[in-house]
Amino acid sequence: MNEENVAIRLKGFIDYLGISSSQFADQCGIPRPTLSQLLNGRNKKISDVLVGQIHTAYPELNVVWLLFGEGDMLNRPSRDDSDVAKDPDDGFPSDDGKMALNEGVGSLSGGGANNIRAASSGSLGPPLEQSLVERDALIEELRKEIDRLKRNPRKVAQITVYYDDSTFETFYPGNGGVKGR
């Protein structure tokens, strides 16, 4: 698991939601500085507790996608939701005339207008079409950023340790060299 890619995918999900990272942190019960450090790369590790908090707040987010980039961003709607009416045509929940999510919403496979259907009208309408275009552009940007990170992984060049007696040591991984004062 590449933690930088997790941060990129998490940013993409937050952008998809259309909320600020502070709002996301509050809704997940995550301290704002913790989320900020993760998103900005200062904290490279994402704990199972943090993933659990995100999953509890947003069960529709596919955790496998978040951690490994596999599958769709959103989980497929559950067919066991007894409190939501089913559309007899496809077995997915219908929101009584509101927009219904199809299984591919948020997937990195693209698909645009094919991923969302109007439950009653059959027409997407200009605002929804515009949001689909924006979402597809965001997904494409995320793909490019992930590809760039895969091509140019960062490596540690040196580590300097400062001691309380005013001395230091600098470690250079790769050549095993140590310099100190």
Describe the SSE topology:
Layout: H1 3-17, H2 21-28, H3 32-39, H4 48-57, H5 63-68, E1 99-101, E2 116-118, H6 126-151, E3 159-162, E4 168-172, E5 177-180
Antiparallel strand pairs: 1-2, 3-4, 4-5
Helix pairs in contact: 1-6
If you had to describe this structure to a student in words, what would you say it looks like?
The strands form two sheets. This protein has a three-stranded antiparallel beta sheet, with no helix packed on it. Strands 1-2 form a two-stranded antiparallel sheet. The model is unreliable at 81-123 (pLDDT under 50). It is elongated and about 65 Å long. The longest helix has 26 residues, at 126-151. It has helices at residues 3-17, 21-28, 32-39, 48-57, 63-68, 126-151; strands at 99-101, 116-118, 159-162, 168-172, 177-180. The protein contains six helices and five strands. The chain starts with a helix and ends with a strand. The chain has 181 residues and is of the alpha+beta class. The chain is 40% helix and 10% strand.
Low-confidence stretches: 81-123
Please give the count of helices.
6
Secondary-structure-derived class: alpha+beta
The main sheet comes to:
3 strands, antiparallel
Q: What fraction, in percent, of the residue positions are helical?
A: 40-55%
Shape: elongated
Percent of residues in beta strands: 5-15%
Number of strands: 5
End-to-end distance: 37 Å
